[in-house]
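[job 4471] stage=fold_predict status=RUNNING
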Amino acid sequence: MPVEAVKRLASTKLGRLAVQFGKFGMVGVVGLVVDISALTLLMAYAGLGPYSARVLSFLTAATTTWALNRNFTFRGTHDGSLLRQWATFIAANSVGGAFNYLTYAALIAGTATVAAHPFLGVAAGSLTGMFINFAASKKLVFR
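[job 4471] inference complete, writing structure tokens
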């Protein structure tokens, strides 16, 4: 696709939304790495089980993605206190987070492979919540 066509597409409302969603996805990959790393560390060194460790790893990843989305994906679309925005982000993404956690928990409980390798459940859960979290972030947090 010629450069001019890409520039034209990126200047449309749909194009800007696609770019923003792409950035959100890149941030999501970083969040996934943080989530899996925290889960692994909490299970291995803090002695937590896969369910309680996942709650903490999710909050760690959500805090990371909030900071990255604030400064990369939705740059210039925020105001107010950092604590209020973080709390709004966590609350707004709680529906996607619930779908994320339920997918993870169902796979851990129902699939021996995922129970043996919890990171697979984290990845599946992250994909489940991604679209919901993008909409919530765009409409409720970074307006």
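[job 4471] summary: Residues 13-45 form the longest helix (33 residues).
[job 4471] exit 0
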